[in-house]
Amino acid sequence: MPFESGGRPPTPGNEPTNWFAFAQKRLVFEAGEDGAAVPVTASLAERGLTPDWVHFMGRLDGVPCYAADLGEGATPPPSMTASGVRELFGRLRDDLFALAGRAQHLVHWHQTNRFCGRCGTRTVDHPDERAKHCPQCGLLTFPRLSPAVITAVRKGDAILLARNRQRGGKMFSIIAGFVEPGESLEEAVRREIREEVGIEVKNLRYFASQPWPYPDSLMLGFTAEYAGGEIRLTDDEIAEADWYRVGAFPPEIPSKISISRALIDHFVATAEKGW
Q1: I need a surface site. Which of 76, 94, 173, 267 has the fewest CB within 10 A?
Q2: What is the pLDDT averaged over residues 14-29?
Q3: Residue pair 264/271 in contact by the 8 Å Cβ criterion
Q4: Domains of the chain
Q5: Order of strands, edge to edge, in the sheet holding 124-125?
Q6: Any idea what DSSP says for residue 100?
Q7: For residues 158 and 135, what is the distance between their CA atoms, to the nearest angstrom?
């Protein structure tokens, strides 16, 4: 049975539950020979943990799933450890990894919306919606989603790859950026590529999307074809960029956790025949 989001929360403490609990932005988990697993227990107290905040996310294979914030200064008990969610890719089961990202997004939302952004009153969880409610002025604050576009640009049998100056290191990836207010996704693609490397693109096609809860992005992937211009680094974000053919990629490209790698792999698979 796939994950079913939302629904009525179960009565606390009555049935085994998947707990996605965070201590200082790190997921608390149990390590074993076969990988990592989140605690499955009716109550976190049974594992020696006392959450400051819990939130029902839904059910996975019928089992309740909760996000939990353990509060500032919390540390895992000796029987557990904690890690950033991304570091657990390949160790957690895929469905649990996806839910860990969802839980991290929700915990970040909780931590950054404790008070009303309009009047400053402490917020409370809305009983019927995934929202923070201000009891003073009535403002509802829903989990933030920051849409970002990411695009693989083809020029003949080559793909545009760039290295981000701000991130450091030698990683090359494809062009990405946040959507601005009032922009369509297509406008955002063209603007980001023009701003960062000075070229124009055409024949945009939607590829896929990926939640990227670090802390609250939604990545929207596109493919595009080169339309004109020469590569010019027009801002301080990109350190270098060029066209790369299959077999001549830079040594470091994104890992398979990301949609950027999926787009690069798609280019490799279609290099001879085009998009």
Answers
A1: 94
A2: 95
A3: no
A4: 3-113 (3.90.79.20), 146-270 (3.90.79.10)
A5: 124-125, 132-133, 140-141
A6: H
A7: 56
